[in-house]
């Protein structure tokens, strides 16, 4: 059985870094902050053993984040350059 990672409050400085790194746009649908509410998402959900590490965080719009929920969906993975 996989152990769930405890949820922590993501510091504002980390949130700002992730938004900036992701060009203030949803990593799934591409909407920008002027078009929608952006959220920080765990790429591999905490419930599935994902970490709170910055490499497991991505920017998603509220709609894409709600569609993903706690599931792992390969369409929602971060693309590293």
Count of the separate structural domains: 1
Placed side by side, the strands forming the largest sheet appear as 1-2
What are the segments in which pLDDT stays under 50 over at least 5 consecutive residues?
none
Question: Major β-sheet, in short?
Answer: 2 strands, antiparallel
Q: Please estimate the helix content.
A: 10-25%
Strand content: 5-15%
Number of helices in the DSSP assignment: 2
**Rg, Cα atoms, Å:** 12 Å
Structural class: alpha+beta
What is the H/E order? HEEH
Pfam family, one: HNH_5
InterPro entries: HNH_5, HNH_nuc, NA-targeting_endonuclease
Protein name: HNH endonuclease
Keywords: Endonuclease, Hydrolase, Nuclease
3D architecture notes:
The protein contains two helices and two strands, in the order αββα. The protein is of the alpha+beta class and 81 residues long. It has a two-stranded antiparallel sheet. The N and C termini lie far apart (33 Å).
Task: Write a concise synopsis of the structure shown.
The protein has 81 residues and is α+β, with helices and mostly antiparallel strands.
Task: Name some characteristics of this structure.
single chain; 81 residues; alpha+beta; two-stranded antiparallel ribbon
Write the layout of secondary structure elements.
Blueprint (H helix, E strand, L loop, with lengths): L11 H10 L16 E5 L14 E5 H7 L13
Antiparallel strand pairs: 1-2
């Amino acid at each position: 059985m996989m152990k769930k990672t405890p949820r922590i409050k993501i510091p504002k400085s980390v949130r700002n870094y992730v938004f900036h790194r992701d060009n203030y746009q949803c990593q799934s649908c591409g909407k920008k902050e002027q078009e929608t509410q952006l959220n920080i998402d765990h790429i591999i959900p905490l419930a599935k053993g994902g970490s709170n590490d910055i490499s497991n965080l991505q920017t998603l719009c509220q709609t894409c984040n709600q569609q993903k929920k706690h599931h792992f969906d390969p369409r929602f993975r971060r693309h590293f350059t």
